[in-house]
Amino acid sequence: MNFSIDKQTLDELNLMGKFRQGSIYHMFNQVKTGGGEQLLDQMFRNPLQDVAAINNRSKVFRFFQDAGCEFPFDVQHVSQMREYLDEKSGKSEILVLADTVIKKCLSALTHDERYKRKIQGLQATIITLARCHSFLETLAPEEPYRSRINTIKTILADRRIEKLRNIDIYTTLPVRLLAHYDHLLKSRLNKELEAVLSFIYEVDVYIAVGGVAQSRGLRYAIAHPPEDNFLSATGLFHPGVPHAVGNDIYMHKDTNVLFLTGANMAGKSTLMKSLGIGLYLAHMGFPVAAESFGFSIREGLYSSINVADNIGLGYSHFYAEVVRVKQAALAAAAGKRLLLMFDELFKGTNVKDAYDGTLSVTEGFADYRECMFVISTHIIEVGAPLKKNNNIRFAYMPTVMDGPHPRYTYQMKEGITEDRQGMMIIRQEGILELLNSAQA
């Protein structure tokens, strides 16, 4: 079963994008090799759904982080080894020998580079295999990576590969020996050599992610079975916000709705994004921006934070919001265990309709105890009639006044806000005086 998430949620949380500034992928993309980047991309696009798989991957990241490893391979040599193995080799060693002799002759008579590339590819392979062997000797064969380490050690201990590893690359190889290894590595031992390259790409990702966790103060989440139906985070913060303030969030089937109020700029949207990013990374087994993070497996993540109108489909902003809520309702009604987040429901319509809509939708969502919801609003009056629902937790992002100037703590508090600084900020910015002076 795949983790369910749509493009809007991916965009709102800024999860993907190799070249997208500030994206979570960009933050973790500290890998050295092309194969490592492909593996990182695969991990980002396929969050895990198995408790053991998630926790084991987290343990592997922590293993490399604690080991303090630096990537031990030469990137150019790894790339040359990849290209060398990708070149086709004849099925017969005799044919490979004939092809090698022809390439050598052409290299002497013309500017044909194929023979030179063949030699360089084999040399790069020898160096990379030797480094891999040395690197494995430095790793403690402990869980959770013991079996993987032992598998690669077994491959490198093969007498044919061991003999290759000990070849002096600075001596000229006879054509027959060059052809022999060309056929051996690309045919008989191709599967084993691919396994070594895969190991190198894994190490690349594990070291890179562990390094990000170390430098940014991230921690590893602990996954629990879906039926536990809870999420607990302490010191949760947004990994892309400098000096971010941490918050504690706890949700389970008896308090599965967080009703969040607070002024604009108080941090409601950032808190939602922090939670969504944390949950997504946790399902990948990646480190999260929190002091601690425990969660039961979710089947998907759904957000509605920056809903825009759709001119192409003729949708107004309000209708786009309604369509988004309908999509979420269908997903919840399908019986999946989801985290769903809505920032400022129905802000594209009048206050009366927004009040009625927010109240009705929040009450309706609250009935789906297998799902978890975070719903924010400016319309604090909605909170009073919702208090009869015992599974709704009320919290707000406070505003503190320093004289005439508002200050935001970004520290969530229990209850419903009573802050109403909108008109005060309008006056503070001198908008009314500007308009009155223009009329004079």
Enter the CATH topology name of the largest domain: Rossmann fold
- Secondary structure tally, helices: 17
What composes the largest sheet? 6 strands, mixed
Q: What structural class should be given to the helix and strand makeup?
A: alpha/beta
Question: Which word captures the global form?
Answer: elongated
What's the helical proportion of residues?
40-55%
- Relative strand content: 5-15%
**Unreliable spans:** 309-314
Count of discrete structural domains: 2
Any idea what the CATH superfamily of the largest domain is called?
P-loop containing nucleotide triphosphate hydrolases
Strand order of the largest sheet: 8-9-10-5-11-14
CATH architecture of the largest domain: 3-Layer(aba) Sandwich
Summed over residues and divided by their number, the pLDDT gives a mean of 85
User: Ends: how far apart?
Assistant: 67 Å
- What's the Cα radius of gyration? 29 Å
